[in-house]
Write a structure and sequence with these properties.
This protein is mostly helical. It has helices at residues 12-32, 39-46, 50-57, 60-83, 89-104, 108-115, 131-148, 154-173, 179-196, 212-216, 219-233. The chain has a domain at 69-233: Tetracycline Repressor, domain 2 (Orthogonal Bundle). Helix 5 packs across helix 11.
């Protein structure tokens, strides 16, 4: 498996070229599927040479992997905002997972991939070759969890992030129940873990965001959250808006 290359340091031109290649690759993959993606077509659409693409991503798989990681990274941006709405860690991870499942299933590239499970290379990036996606999502979730719930041990944040990521991918690839039902299972596991540690963590509610109870009691708020999230994920070439800041004590 080709390792995901990092952006060149201190070279804005190379970084801009990388983003153009990723934009072009994602556009083309949405049109024809990842299996029919051709490096030459992507290079031409991005205005770079084939060799530039190979130098930056290694091969076609490396390019596809980078696209998958970028899609996952945008999804985590949305999840971060959802996590910040809930003082309770167990409620937060459940709400974040439910949102992730709903939004990811409607992201154009993911939707196409799931519809062509037997004929699209992208599915491997959610199953047998998902290491880069899992690592990226886990790293960010651990960082977010540490900021929002600093009293929880780092090792527990690692456990929670890894389970949440793997459960989300599993349910996304083979959806057998509603997102909220799957997410409740994760919440139960998190509660059990925290109880075993002798803690039920929560943090003061941010006055700038709805509390968990207010969110549950306001269907309009939930609809607005999903609508904004879906709009962000269905615009694959626009840079994601920065996640909302939160105040913790």
């Amino acid at each position: 498996m080709t390792a995901l290359r990092r952006e060149p340091v201190g070279t804005q031109r190379a970084s801009a070229a990388r983003q153009r290649v990723l934009d072009a690759a994602e556009r083309r993959a949405i049109e024809v599927g990842m299996a029919k993606l051709r490096v030459g077509h992507v290079a031409a659409a991005a205005g770079v040479s084939r060799q530039t693409v190979y130098n930056e991503f290694g091969d076609k798989f490396g390019l596809a992997e980078a696209v998958a990681v970028r899609v996952a990274d945008r999804l985590v941006d949305l999840i971060e905002g959802e996590l910040a709405r809930h003082p309770s860690l167990s409620e937060a991870v459940a709400s974040g997972m439910a949102l992730a499942l709903r939004v990811a299933a409607e992201q154009p590239l993911v939707e196409l991939t799931l519809a062509r499970k037997d004929n699209d290379d992208m599915i491997a990036l959610l199953t047998t070759d998902a290491a880069a996606v899992i690592e990226t999502v886990n790293t960010r979730l651990v960082e977010i969890g540490g900021k929002l719930w600093p009293d929880i041990a780092h090792t527990d944040h690692v456990l929670i992030a890894d389970l949440a990521t793997r459960m989300t991918i599993s349910h996304l690839v083979c959806m057998t129940e509603r997102p909220e039902q799957a997410a409740r299972k994760l919440a139960l596991w998190v509660k059990a873990l925290l109880a075993a540690r002798g803690r039920i963590p929560s943090r003061p509610s941010n006055p700038c965001t709805p509390t968990a109870g207010a969110l549950r009691g306001s269907p309009a708020s939930i609809t607005t959250t999903d609508r904004r999230a879906r709009a962000s994920m269905s615009a694959p070439f626009s840079p994601a808006a920065p996640p909302p800041t939160t105040t913790t004590s």
